[in-house]
Amino acid sequence: MTAPLRAALFHRPAELDEALRLLAAHPEAVPVAGGTDLMVAVNYRHTRPAAMLDLTRLAELREWSDEGDAIRIGSGVPYTRIIAELATVLPGLAAAARTVGSPQIRNRGTLGGNLATASPAGDGHPPLLATGADIEIASTAGTRTVPVTAFFTGPKRSVLAPGELITAVTVPKAAGPQQFLKVGTRNAMVIAVCSLAVALDRDARRLGTGIGSAGPTPLTAPDADLIELPWNRPDLFNDALAAEFGRRVAAAARPIDDVRGTAAYRRHALAVCAARALRRVWTAAHGTESTR
Amino acid sequence: MRVEMRVDGEPAAAEIDRPGESLLTTLRDRLGRYGTKNACEQGECGSCTVLLDGDPVCACLVATAQCEGREVKTVVGAVPRPVRDAFIACGAVQCGFCTPGLLVSVADLLARDGDPNDVQIREALAGNLCRCTGYEKIIDAVHAAAELMSDGTPAPTRAHWITTPVVPSAANDATEAAP
Questions:
Q1: Which class does domain B2-77 fall in?
Q2: Which InterPro entries match (chain A) (predicted)?
C-alpha cells in the first residue's frame, strides 16, 4: 500500500499570482487544465508527475475579453466556448476548434494546453499563425508577449520556460473571410494528417496562412501570403491563381513520412486545401462584386 | 490526499495516493461505481463519459484531485428513464460496453436540444465509439427518446417496434412519463 498523497503534491491555486508563486517554488509540478494531453501520458505511464498544479480554478484564465480590434482569450477557455461564443469574430479559430477531438475533449481542452504541448499537429495553431496572434506568458518575474510565429521551436517544444504559464492568447478580429481545412480519416477524433488556415484581410489587402502537421512546428507560408491577387478586379481571380497559391503553400511545408501519412501526400493535400481555401475566402469576400 | 465531491447526487470522498490518478480510476477502484467503463484511457472511445458540473467529459482524462467540490454524474445519475428505455426498445445495445458512455452523451444532447436531427446526433455522439451496432439503432433510439421526453408519444421512426418494447416495465414507465 502506498502512502496517501500529501496535499502539497496536488496544488489547487485559486488565483494566478498564487499559481505563479507555487510554480516558482515547485518547478517539478506539472500544470494541468483539461488534461487531454497530460492525462493520456499519465494513464499510459509515459510520465509520472511527482506533483501537479491545477489551473481549472483560475477564473481569470477562463474568461475572454473584447480588446477592440482583437479578442484576448484566457488560456483556460475550453474549445466548446470558443465555438459557441467566438465564431463570429474569430471564424478561423472557431472552425479549427470545432475539429478538435470530440464533444468530451472540446469541453475540457484549452488553447493554452494546445500551445503548451506545442504539437506540430495542434489544431489551434494554424489559425493563430494565419491571423498573427500573440501569446501572453506569465511568471513571478512578470509578463511577456510572444508572437505566435516565434513561439514554436521544435516538435513539442516552445519558448515556454520552467516557471512560466501561458495566460492568454490575443487574436486579431477577422477582417475578412477565414478558412480552416483539416485532412484526416474521419471528421471526429482525428489527429490532423495536415491542416491549413487561411485568413483574408480585405481592408489591408493581405493574406495570412498557417500550416499544421506538415513540419517540425506549425508553419507560416510567407511566399504564399505575398501572391499577387486582383484586388482591384476581383473577377479576374481564377483557378490558376488558386493553384499557384497551393503550390507555394506546399513548398513552405516541411513534412515527413509518419504513421498518419507520407510527406508526398501531405504536400499534395496541402496544395489542394490551399487552392480550395483561397477560392472560398475570395468568393466570400468578393462574391457580390464578381457577379456584377 | 482526500478529495470530496458529489457523485450521482450523494457526497463521496476518496483517498488518492498519486497526483495523476484519474476520476475513472477513483470511481471504479475506490468508490466501487462500475457503471462508468474503462476502455481506452486516452479519451478516444467515450466509454467513461460522465457529466462534470453538467458537461460531458472523459473521466479518464480528469485528474481526481481536480474534482474537489465538483458534481459528477455517471450513467446512474445522469440519464432520464426514457433514454434508457429507448435504447432497449430500439436494440441500441449489443455487447453493452459503450452503452453507459453513450447514455450520458445522449442525456446531455437531449437536455440541450429536445429534437436533434441525424447530423446533430452524429456530431454529439462522435466521441462515443460502438463496435457492435453500426450506430443506426443508436440514432433511432435518440429520436425515440426525444419523442418520449417531449410528449410521451412514440416516434414514427424506423424503429417501429418502439411501440412494443421488449421490456414490459419500460413501456409502463414511458407511459407514466407522459403529461
A1: alpha beta
A2: CO_DH_flav_C, CO_DH_flav_C_dom_sf, Diverse_Substr_Oxidored, FAD-bd_PCMH, FAD-bd_PCMH-like_sf, FAD-bd_PCMH_sub1, FAD-bd_PCMH_sub2, Mopterin_DH_FAD-bd
